[in-house]
Write a structure and sequence with these properties.
This protein is an alpha/beta fold. The chain has a 6-stranded parallel sheet with strand order 3-5-6-7-4-8, with helices on both faces. Strands 9-11-10 form a 3-stranded antiparallel sheet. It has a two-stranded antiparallel sheet with strand order 1-2. The chain is globular, with a radius of gyration of 29 Å.
Length: 534
């Protein structure tokens, strides 16, 4: 008799559906057994207490839910039907995969032995590839969120559905012809050919392979072939061929799939995706609370410690950030989460700034203006508030909207719900806000030092365009103001000299038109206020 059991992803779906129906493990309420019996023999009347259909019992129900041992195929399918699940979507395919001839070619070895959560995302991606036969999937998310690890784990789960799985990183930004020549050589089982063939020839050859077989191609680090220093989504000069590759793989008929992974979404692909189309997109966010707890527990911080939930929320479930901060809490604060939180600071460690630096450096001028303002505001703001606040740096609403859309494509912008339910709000993740705040202090300082030393207001771009003390008295702007004051004191011979220089600069700026000085005069007045209070 053939037997079946659920996969890890399938088991998560089974448990979720069981809870939704209110069915327990011990079948005090045997509705699950009655419905499974009806699935096997719908013409017979089944009654509480049994007997039940052949293969349906409390024992097989428990084994079905546990997923450790296989049960009869008919009973497995009946239980799935009772739970309103498609058995083919939850069944374990590993045995099939072990006997298959799937060929895999990964350019990097990715360790997934320690992997937390992501069952919902794995299930979604597996469904898109296996059931919906999506041809192109774009997986996006900010740096360190776990995209690469998720793709590696996905490869383990879907390998029984493909004859070949090929993974390549675009970190070194290879020309598209070079990439296609290498992939085509792997699929052809031959030595790597040069990339002399034109893009059209290389693409045609790849698509022939994708039609003849069922292959999965994974392309990671896609952002490296996109432009930086401007609004997100455009390909770098000379790399437009990647756009052609993605468009054709997504739009032409074949039996294969391409998973593209990036910190930001190409604008042309985003416009082609849809819930019922063969091109889909998934933005990866932070871990669920229970999975984030496992990261903290692995670092010695248990659920019983006060503040663990607040810590997870503060870092938005970002797995890498949580690993870093958990180490700091254990080594510096003896594992006391509450004491750490009472310091009113965020720890970024050595790794997160490098990741944030890479993403920040890709921002265009308009995006940076928005990021700076959101950092100083601290609390979420709506479009109207942003428009009024950025009146000296972004001249039109259309430009502001374009910048917001671009930040959204880069996975940097949060849109928390409005408590009043009236307007769409915008904010940044706290950890990224912390990084940008440090940048703001240094940039404000550079402009102030020049202004106070030379008396020239020619280089007050940030002082002019951004308010150090917005009208809502944001906590973050106050911290920036105080850090700026302390930074100035380190380069000033005496506090009195600093106050005199600030007063002189304010008098000079009073003689200039508001449009020319923007927020600069008010910023210096606020700074003078915090120096006088010492």
């Amino acid at each position: 008799m053939s037997t079946l059991k659920a996969s890890a992803l399938g088991l998560a779906r089974i448990q979720q559906r069981r809870r939704e129906k209110g069915w327990g493990w011990n079948v005090e309420d045997d509705t699950c057994l009655l419905q499974a019996s009806s699935a096997l023999d719908p013409d017979r009347a089944w009654h509480t207490g049994g007997p039940y259909a052949y293969g349906i019992s409390a024992g097989t129900w428990k084994r079905f839910l546990a997923g450790k041992y296989a049960i009869g195929a008919k009973a497995f399918k009946a239980y799935c039907q009772a739970l309103d699940l498609d058995w083919q979507e939850v069944v374990e395919r590993q045995l099939q995969a072990q006997g298959s001839t799937t060929q895999q070619d990964w350019d990097e070895s990715i360790d997934t032995s320690i992997f937390y959560g992501r069952l919902a995302e794995l299930n979604q991606l597996q469904q898109w590839l296996a059931r919906d036969r999506c041809r192109l999937i774009l997986l996006s998310g900010m740096g360190g969120i776990g995209k690469t690890a998720l793709s590696a784990k996905l490869g383990e789960y879907v390998r029984g559905d493909f004859t070949e799985i090929i993974r390549r990183s675009l970190r070194q930004a290879p020309p598209v012809e070079t990439l296609l020549a290498e992939v085509n050589s792997v699929l052809a089982g031959e030595a790597s050919r040069d990339a002399a063939d034109r893009l059209e020839q290389q693409l045609a050859r790849l698509l022939d392979f994708l039609r003849a077989r069922r292959c999965l191609l994974i392309l990671d680090d896609l952002e490296t072939i996109l432009c930086s220093g401007e609004l997100a989504g455009r390909y770098r000069p000379g790399y437009e061929g990647y756009g052609e590759l993605l468009r054709r793989v997504g739009s032409e008929r074949h039996e294969s799939g391409l998973l593209a992974i990036a910190r930001e979404r190409p604008s042309d692909i985003a416009s082609l995706a849809g819930d019922d189309l063969p091109i889909r997109m998934l933005k990866l966010g932070g871990l669920e609370r229970d999975d984030a707890r496992k990261i903290l527990a692995a670092k010695g911080i248990s659920d019983t410690r006060h503040g663990a939930i607040a810590l997870i929320q503060l870092y938005r479930g970002h797995p890498l950030a949580l690993k870093i901060v958990a180490t700091t809490i254990w080594e510096i604060f003896g594992g006391d989460v509450r004491e750490f939180l009472d310091q009113s600071t965020l720890v970024l460690g050595d790794i997160m700034p490098a990741i944030f630096y890479q993403q920040f450096e890709r921002l265009g001028k308009l995006e940076r203006a928005v990021v700076y303002w959101l950092t100083l505001e601290s609390e979420p703001v709506n479009l109207g508030q942003l428009r009024r606040g950025l009146c000296f740096s972004i001249p039109s609403t259309s430009q502001l909207v374009a910048a917001l859309e671009s930040l959204k494509r880069r996975s940097l912008l949060e849109t928390p719900p409005d408590p009043a339910g009236e307007m769409r709000l915008f904010a940044l993740q706290p950890a990224f806000t912390k990084y940008v705040a440090n940048l703001l202090v240094e940039q404000f300082y550079g402009e102030l030092a020049t202004l106070l030393a030379t008396g020239s207001a020619q280089q007050i771009d940030l002082l002019r365009s951004h308010a150090l003390a917005p009208t809502n008295s944001a906590e973050q702007s106050r911290l920036v103001l105080l850090a700026l004051r302390d930074r100035l004191y380190t380069t000033t011979s005496a506090p009195q000299n600093l106050r005199e220089n600030l007063a002189t600069a304010i008098t000079e700026l009073q003689q200039r038109p508001t449009k020319e000085v923007g927020y600069a005069r008010a910023n210096l007045e606020h700074l003078l206020g915090v120096t006088t209070s010492l």
